[in-house]
Amino acid sequence: MPEGHSVHRIARQFQRNFVGSRVAVSSPQGRFAEGAARLDGRVITAAHAVGKQMFLEFDDGLWLRIHLGLYGAWEFAGDILMGLPEASVLDSDGENSLRSIGAPRRARLRMSEEEKVTDAPVVFPAPPVGQVRVRLLSDTVVADLRGPTACEVLDPQQVETVMLRLGPDPELDGSEAARDRFTSVVRRKPTPIGRLLMDQSVVSGIGNVYRAEMLFRARLNPHTPGKALGLSTVHALWADWAYLLHIGIETGQMMTRDNLTGPELARAMKNRVDRHWVYKREGLPCRVCGTHIVLEEMAARKLYWCPRCQS
C-alpha cells in the first residue's frame, strides 16, 4: 500500500502541474461518471495530503477525496513540470518517478518494454489504458487514476469531517501540540503499539513498512501496550516518524537505515532489499544481532520484527 510519503509527493505533483488550471474530468472506466460530471470544467484551486489520503479542491466548494488503498496509483503524462525534490531517486521496482506514483504497475511496465519504437507523432492526450477510474486533463498535463479504495466528491463540511477523524501528520503539523495529541492517545490505550501505529485515527500516514521499521529502530516489542510506554519513548516515535516521512518525501524511497554512505547508500536507494532493517526479511539474520527475523500477522497485515533486539 502506498504510504504517507507517496501521497505527499502526489499532492506536490498536483500543486505544480494542476493547481490554477481548468480541467476536463472524466471516468473512462465509468465507475466515477457521476462524480466526474460534477467536477468537469472546474478549476483545481488546491491539493492537500493528509497521511494516506489526498484532497483536491475545486472552485465552487467541491473537493475530490482519494484514498489509494492497496492498489491505487496516479499516472501522469504530458509536459510535466518538476514538482518533486531534486533529491528524488528512481528505484529498481519502478515505484518512484515523475510519471507514476503509488502502487507498482508491473503490467504497465511490461507493456512499455514491449512497445515498438515508431516514427508516429506523439498524441496528447493518449487514449486511456486499462481501468482508469478518473482522468484529469489540463491543456498540458493528464493524470489517470487506477485502482483507488476511495474516490468521491465532497463538500467542505464533509471534508472537515473526514480530516477530523485522521490522526496528526508531522509533515503538515510538526508542532508540540500535534506530538502531544499523538502521545496522549497512545499512552491511554491498552492496544499493542504495533496496532496503534497502523491506526490512521492515531497517527496519519504510517503503513506496513514504516510500522515495522520504526518499531525496530526504537527497539520496541510490537506487542507492548501503548499505555506501558514512557513519555520519552512515545515522543521519540513521533520524532522518528517525522524524520523518516521527510526523507521519504524528499527521495521517494522509504529509506529506514541510517549512516549508509557511498556505494552502499546508492545500492540501498535503488534496491528495496538493502533499504530496510526488518521489512520482508523473515528468516534472514538481523542486521544487528544475527537472530532470524520473525514474520507474524498483526492487524490483518504482515509484521516483521527481531525477537532479540525488540524483546
From TrEMBL:
Biological process, per Gene Ontology: base-excision repair
Residue span(s) of domain Formamidopyrimidine-DNA glycosylase catalytic: 2-81
Single GO MF annotation: oxidized pyrimidine nucleobase lesion DNA N-glycosylase activity
EC number: 4.2.99.18
Cofactor field: Zn(2+)
Keyword terms, alphabetized: DNA damage, DNA repair, DNA-binding, Glycosidase, Hydrolase, Lyase, Metal-binding, Multifunctional enzyme, Zinc, Zinc-finger
Domain called FPG-type: residue spans: 277-311
CDD domains (UniProt xref): AcNei1_N
InterPro entries given in the database record: FPG_cat (IPR012319), FPG_N (IPR035937), H2TH_FPG (IPR015886), Ribosomal_uS13-like_H2TH (IPR010979), Znf_DNA_glyclase/AP_lyase (IPR000214), Znf_FPG/IleRS (IPR010663)
Enzyme class at the top of the EC tree: lyase
Origin superkingdom: Bacteria
Family: Belongs to the FPG family.
Name of protein: DNA-(apurinic or apyrimidinic site) lyase
